[in-house]
Specification:
This protein is an alpha/beta fold. It has two domains: about 200 residues, Thiolase/Chalcone synthase (Peroxisomal Thiolase, Chain A, domain 1), CATH 3.40.47.10; about 140 residues, 3-Layer(aba) Sandwich (Peroxisomal Thiolase, Chain A, domain 1). Helices cover about 40% and strands about 25% of the residues. It is built from 13 helices and 13 strands. The strands form four sheets. Strands 1-7-6-4-5 form a five-stranded mixed β-sheet, with helices on both faces. Strands 8-13-12-11 form a four-stranded mixed β-sheet, covered by helices on one side. It has a two-stranded antiparallel ribbon with strand order 2-3. The longest helix is centred in the N-terminal third of the chain and has 26 residues. It is globular and about 60 Å long. The chain starts with 7 loop residues before the first helix and ends with a strand. About 45% of the residues are buried.
Length: about 375
């Protein structure tokens, strides 16, 4: 015999109770940038030197990709000459461990300062990265360096690529819903320049080098009853079937070699009707009801495609384009840079935002936000 179906009044009561449950808010986001930076113009001579001796038409195409990638500047944990120097996987990964630990600590401390919190106020520590290997993961280093609580819950998230930042927020949302009153820190740390393949002159490696940069960001979530902050009111993942080779890395003796299918923008366009409208509609909303679009800038073509779709609804992704120009694509950290820009705006209670990232799998990760 099946379970009894609740009456309308019971369902209504459940709905009311669910929506009166205290939500964790996004309290603050802070970024930490590596000490080295170069404009695209300053990088071009290194690209020319790297491609010296290659067929002229290929060299010209590669340089055009750099020039028109709509990335004006990017940061790196290494000087540009070191990036374009052939080194071992071990050497690049050692850079990653040392520099990313320092930057993760800086981002976490800046976020704590913004929220007027202390390291011991954090109950859940989620870190996400895909561009280097650390065992123990960086969260263990942070617990020691900042003397965080010895019972803090650790969740290192790896291999989610560009979707890692949004995915980590989804995990934090679920953990905080199960632990009301707790606080979570989400740290995304990425160094795509550490994955540059000196011997790989494929167009995939060229595109990767043209759009990616290094960066770290930290987002804090927790209770803030007296402040208007964004609340995650819904979240979801959407997985493409038979698309395992659209994006990711192959592990080679020389390090992590980028996998990036040129069909990614078109694949996203085809799936967009299944990714966004049903997600918004299940919350009794239309796309027109969303004021803020917090989109991960994967690259120029993906940004242009999403912008074209949203323009028909009167929406824009100006902050996304600014982040791409100023920093490049920093994999999982990038969407948190866009989020930080929105947290610095004067947004009124009741306004809504949609957060979206794409990553290996292939998958889309979505968050519906409301300022409360």
């Amino acid at each position: 015999m099946g379970l009894p179906i609740p009456s309308f009044s019971a369902r209504k009561k459940h709905y009311i109770i669910k929506n009166l449950t205290p939500h964790a808010k996004i309290l603050a986001t802070a970024k930490a940038l590596p000490k080295y930076s170069r404009t695209t113009e300053e990088i071009l001579p290194y690209v020319e030197q790297w491609l010296e001796g290659k067929e002229e038409r290929f060299r010209e195409k590669a340089l055009r990709i750099f020039k028109y990638a709509e990335v004006d500047k990017r940061y790196s944990i290494m000087e540009v000459g070191e990036v374009f120097t052939k080194t071992s996987f071990e050497e690049k990964n050692d850079y990653f461990i040392r520099e990313m630990t320092l930057l993760a600590e800086a981002a976490l401390q800046k976020a704590l300062d913004k929220a007027a919190l202390l390291p011991k106020d954090i109950d859940i520590l989620i870190t996400t990265s895909c561009t280097g290997i650390m065992i123990p993961s960086v969260d263990a280093y942070l617990i020691n360096r900042l003397r965080m609580r010895q019972d803090v819950m650790r969740l290192p998230v790896t291999e989610m690529g560009c979707a890692g930042g949004t995915s980590a927020l989804i995990y934090a949302q679920h953990l905080l819903a199960a632990n009301p009153g707790k606080r979570a820190a989400i740290i995304a740390l990425e160094s795509p320049t550490s994955t540059f393949q000196h011997e790989d002159v494929s167009m995939t490696n060229v595109v990767s080098a043209a759009i990616f940069g290094d960066g770290v960001a930290c987002t804090l979530m927790g209770p803030a009853p007296d402040q208007v902050k964004p609340v995650i009111v819904d979240s979801g993942m959407y997985h493409f079937y038979d698309a395992l080779r659209m994006m990711g890395f192959d592990l080679k003796n020389s390090g992590l070699q980028m996998v990036l299918d040129p069909s990614v923008p078109e694949q996203i366009r085809e799936h967009f009707p299944q990714i966004i409208p049903p997600f918004v509609e299940r919350n009794n909303l239309r796309l027109e009801d969303i004021q803020h679009f917090i989109f991960h800038p994967g690259g120029k073509k993906i940004v242009q495609m999403v912008e074209e779709i949203l323009r028909s609804f009167g929406k824009h992704i100006d902050e996304t384009k600014k982040v791409l120009r100023k920093y490049g694509n920093m994999s999982s950290a990038t969407v948190l840079y866009v989020l930080e820009a929105y947290l610095e705006k004067d947004i009124k209670a009741g306004e809504k935002g949609l957060m979206l990232s794409f990553g290996p799998g292939f998958s889309a990760q979505r968050l519906l936000l409301e300022w409360r």
